[in-house]
Design brief:
The chain is of the alpha/beta class. It has one domain: Aldolase class I (TIM Barrel). It contains 13 helices and twelve strands.
Length: 378
């Protein structure tokens, strides 16, 4: 079930948003309209939330569709042939994405990551990359399952993409095929990684979601395979994202356990963070042959440093991966508002942000109707 506020957004005609009479109780859209109605000439400036966390990172989901059915993200029994994906008219155009991205940059965003679904399924996504690359000194990256990367790597680099992150949950072909649940071979993803490296989309990060009893035996082989290549494997604790993956705490392999397993064969030492708000804990091989990262969202929550906003495929702003509702920016983009006014609305949302889901995770929060990761990007 998709959690969004589409019904709310259609209460008034989009074309008349600035002048439409406002009912007393229209919730989030009403608040956004009020914020956007502020001085449209106001100077944009960086913004912080209630915990002092700046807005630095923007993840943009360019499609809610994917060619994999990974068991922890888009289980096939839910996302089947009858699942209602977003119709084309509801998806942000490249021009709308580029516009809102520019507004986010004016509010302090320094890094933009294109996600999905699978972003390489979006037709002509290179054109969007080219548009975003013109924003200036912004770290422009993309996360992909790698299935189409061998075909797309060179054109993505030419368009201005700086780096890619590839999701790869095992080097064991049988395990990988079972986890992606579409019988896709691991060799094709490895070809994509090689193509990305050849195109200069480095350093390449490899994301492996570790689920106990499923692919935990692949941890050390994964580290061993990519050690010395310059690629950085990041081992991610299995999380309770969305409401359809059947998450249980028993399935989580703690990051500390991952580090111990690798260190026993390939000695590690702790490394400093590259920047404030970096989600991965860095570990270097003692022999200087590279590094790994662990993302411990479950056992060592990093909410206090989270600087990420997420924009869904249909233009809703989410302030947490585990959110239950978003804020409709598409209504403002299509409603005739000036950039500064939309920036005011974004700032208003961020200033009241209180999210720290992973720090307060409990049996009750796990059952919340959270938005699916394929809709807002991981």
């Amino acid at each position: 079930m998709r959690i969004d506020s589409k019904g709310m957004a259609t209460i008034i005609p989009i074309a008349d948003l600035r002048k439409a009479p406002r009912p007393k109780a229209r919730g989030d859209l009403d608040a956004l309209l009020d914020a956007a109605a502020d001085d449209e000439t106001a100077r944009a400036s960086p913004v912080g939330d209630t915990l002092g966390r700046p807005l630095r990172d923007l993840r943009i989901s360019v499609t809610d569709r994917c060619n994999f059915r990974c068991v922890y993200c888009m289980p096939k029994d839910v996302f089947d042939a009858n699942f209602a994906f977003l119709p084309h008219a509801e998806i942000l155009s490249f021009e709308e994405i580029a516009r809102v991205a520019r507004i986010f940059v004016e509010r302090g965003v320094q890094k933009i990551r294109l996600t999905g679904g699978e972003p390489l399924l979006r037709r002509n996504v290179e054109r969007l990359v080219e548009m975003l690359a013109k924003l200036g000194d912004v770290d422009l990256t993309l996360t992909t399952n790698g299935a189409l990367l061998a075909k797309k790597a060179r054109s993505l680099a030419a368009a201005g993409l700086k780096r890619v992150t590839v999701s790869l949950d095992s080097l064991d072909d049988a395990t990988f095929r079972a986890m992606n649940d579409v019988d896709f071979p691991v060799a094709k993803v490895l070809e994509g990684i090689d193509a990305a490296a050849a195109a200069g989309l480095a350093p390449i990060k490899i994301n492996m979601v570790v689920k106990r009893g499923t692919n935990d035996s692949s941890v050390v082989p994964m580290a061993r395979h990519f050690r010395g290549t310059g690629h950085i494997v990041r081992f991610i604790e299995y999380m309770d994202v969305g409401a359809t993956n059947g998450w249980r705490m028993d399935d989580v392999v703690p990051a500390a356990e991952v580090v111990r397993a690798i260190d026993a064969e390939l000695p590690l030492e702790n490394a400093d963070r590259n920047y404030g708000g970096e989600v991965a804990q860095r570990w270097k091989y003692r022999d200087g042959s590279g590094e790994i990262g662990v993302i411990a969202s479950v056992t060592q929550a990093f909410c206090r440093d989270c600087t990420r906003a997420r924009l869904s495929t249909d233009g809703k702003l989410y302030t947490c991966l585990f959110a239950t509702a978003g804020h409709d920016l598409r209504a403002l983009l299509r409603g005739g508002f000036a950039d500064a006014q939309i920036g005011n609305a974004i700032a208003a949302v961020w200033k009241v942000r209180v999210d720290r889901y992973s720090e307060i995770r409990s049996a009750n929060t796990v059952r919340l109707p959270k938005v699916e990761m394929s809709y807002i990007g991981g």
